[in-house]
Amino acid sequence: MSRRKLRVVEYDRDFINYEDNNEIRRFIATIEEIYRLARKPENWPAGFLDEKSEKVWRKELNLYFEEIGANSHSNSTKIDFVLNLAIEKLYENSDEARNFGFAEMKRRSEELMEKQRDSQNPLNRIDCLNSSL
Q1: Vertex 90, ends 86 and 95: CA angle to 5°?
Q2: For residues 96 and 22, what is the distance between their CA atoms, to the nearest angstrom?
Q3: Pfam families under this entry (predicted)?
Q4: Helix (H, G, I), strand (E, B), or coil: what is residue 48?
């Protein structure tokens, strides 16, 4: 899991503690409310968060992971799987997001190349200044 992935899915935190089941539960409810990865009723995320019995919501969480295909024993792998599904759904539903990703990466790589070119030869800056006159 990475901060970038969490930012892409617009999660309000940049870290998830895999050992904290309440944090995992909050993450799953938030992602499910936004992206609807599983075939759950519309009010499922709220009910899942409001559930008081730990035994019940743990069972529901395990069923959720099975339903979406996250069959790992590791919480980190399951969370990463959920993030990947959410990102995939985001990109498949939005041409704008797909274009933004490519355009943004292209712009950043061009900026990086420009900086490297300038840093490797300080005379490049002088040449650029003279050519703009």
Answers
A1: 160
A2: 34
A3: RLL
A4: helix
Q: Is 29 helix (H, G, I), strand (E, B) or coil?
A: helix
- d(CA 1, CA 31) in angstroms, rounded, equals 14
DSSP 9: T
Written as one letter, the residue type at 13 is R
- 97's CB contacts (< 8 A; 6+ apart) are 90, 91
Taken as a whole, the chain contains a residue count of 133
Q: What is the DSSP string of 58-107?
A: HHHHHHHHHHHT---S-HHHHHHHHHHHHHHHHHHT-HHHHHHHHHHHHH
Cα separation, 129 vs 108, whole angstroms: 22
Low-confidence ranges of the chain (pLDDT < 50): 131-133
